[in-house]
Design a protein that fits this description.
Order of helices and strands: EEHHHEEEHHEE
CATH topology of the largest domain: Glutamine Phosphoribosylpyrophosphate, subunit 1, domain 1
CATH architecture of the largest domain: 4-Layer Sandwich
Strand content: 15-25%
Number of strands: 7
Pfam family, one: Proteasome
Protein name: Proteasome subunit beta type-4
Helix content: 25-40%
Strand order of the largest sheet: 1-2-3-4-5
Radius of gyration: 18 Å
CATH class of the largest domain: Alpha Beta
Keywords: Nucleus, Proteasome
Number of helices: 5
Number of domains: 2
């Protein structure tokens, strides 16, 4: 999971890839469930007084039944959160991607500001849905199972294309890797670019 270069231009020092479900040993959310969102969602999720994920952990801790939510359950719950805000005519103007690993299977889910939700092998939001998503789908059509290095190379290729094609983008990004052992968020990383090809680009004047 990687936040696109474009969203990082708004608040460059704010992380958008995190594991919101980290908590005490009896926390309801598994550590294999990171979320990615932009500023409006993060401010709702982690305000100083406690956001929606901390409150969810506290409620489940008080029940004391040892129940933990799967990434799919967190995704379904966020669908209700987003739809509830939309129904109040006060939506969270954001698209959230939930990634996770549970029972030996990976999970990737999408929720937008209207509460529209679905699961897919690859997901991209914003400008990435037009340029990065076709590239990822093309690779997975040829090879359904990628190694971690192959997946990383593919994401870097997608981010590089987004960086080249968007004048408001920024070459810093974060990379979240999800396994059964947990979530590792790397970054901010720097995207290497080669602008020697700029003179061959035409048709955008």
């Amino acid at each position: 999971m990687t936040p696109s270069p474009r969203v990082r231009t708004r608040s460059r020092g704010v992380s958008r890839a995190m594991a919101p479900c980290h908590g005490p040993p009896r926390a309801p959310c598994p550590p294999q469930c990171p979320a990615q969102g932009s500023q409006s969602f993060l401010e709702h999720q982690f305000p100083v007084s406690g956001g929606i994920f901390p409150r969810l952990r506290i409620d489940e801790e008080l029940l004391g039944d040892g129940h933990t939510y799967s990434p799919r359950a967190i995704h379904s719950w966020l669908t209700r959160v987003m739809y509830n805000r939309r129904s109040k005519i006060n939506p969270l103007w954001n698209t959230v991607v939930i990634g996770g690993c549970s029972g030996g299977q990976g999970f990737l889910g999408y929720v937008d500001m209207l509460g529209v939700a679905y699961e897919a092998p690859t997901l991209a939001t914003g400008f990435g849905a037009y340029l990065a998503q076709p590239l990822m789908r093309e690779v997975l059509e040829k090879k359904q199972s990628l190694t971690q290095e192959e997946a990383r190379d593919l994401l870097e290729r997608c981010l590089r294309i987004l960086y080249y094609r968007d004048a408001r983008s920024f070459n810093r990004y974060e990379l979240a890797t999800v396994t059964e052992k947990g979530v590792q968020v790397e970054g901010p990383l720097t995207l290497e670019a080669n602008w020697d090809i700029a003179h061959v680009v035409s048709g955008f004047e």
